[in-house]
From TrEMBL:
All residue ranges annotated as the Oxidoreductase molybdopterin-binding domain in the record: 10-83
Domain of life: Bacteria
Keywords: Plasmid
Magnesium keyword on record: no
Gene Ontology molecular-function annotations: heme binding; molybdopterin cofactor binding; sulfite oxidase activity
Name used for this protein in its record: Oxidoreductase molybdopterin-binding domain-containing protein
Example GO BP: sulfur compound metabolic process
InterPro entries hit by this protein: OxRdtase_Mopterin-bd_dom, OxRdtase_Mopterin-bd_sf
């Protein structure tokens, strides 16, 4: 149903969609990525309305894309004839952002970023382990 709705709205020259959130966050997503059958606009989760922590009032869910393309607190969709750069943090986001080929950033090759992120995993695991051990020592009434 989502694909039919989007197809009906899109003019022939539309190739991208700018997805904007209430907090000012935005991501430009290729229209073809939003046409996948598992892409959703969600307003409920597990039969209950979305909470603000999960992206209320509306959230874009595109499982094949990195999380920075699945916008929480959706405010607006803009249909565009060409991609528009949408910076995320300090690094410019990849124009597509697909998970499978590891399209994390428009800067540098995917294999470079794979090593950068893998180097960080050990530190994150040590930090999580330390927090877990601290929680075990807490005496709860």
């Amino acid at each position: 149903m989502w694909a039919a709705f989007l197809t009906e709205l899109a003019q022939p020259d539309v190739t991208h969609v700018m997805v904007r959130a209430h907090d000012g966050y935005q991501a430009c997503v290729p229209l073809e990525e939003l046409m996948h059958t598992d892409v959703l606009l969600a307003d409920h989760m597990n039969g209950k309305p979305l909470t603000p922590a999960h992206g209320a009032p509306l959230r874009l869910i595109a499982p094949q894309l990195y999380g920075y393309k699945s916008i929480k607190h959706l405010r607006r969709l803009e249909l565009l004839p060409a991609p528009v750069a949408s910076p995320v943090g300090r690094i410019v986001s990849h124009p597509r952002g697909r998970v499978n080929p590891e399209e994390r950033s428009a800067v540098g090759a995917s294999h470079f970023w794979r090593w950068v992120y893998r180097m960080q995993v050990g530190g994150h695991l040590r930090g999580a382990r330390a927090l877990s051990e601290q929680n075990r020592r807490i005496v709860r009434p």
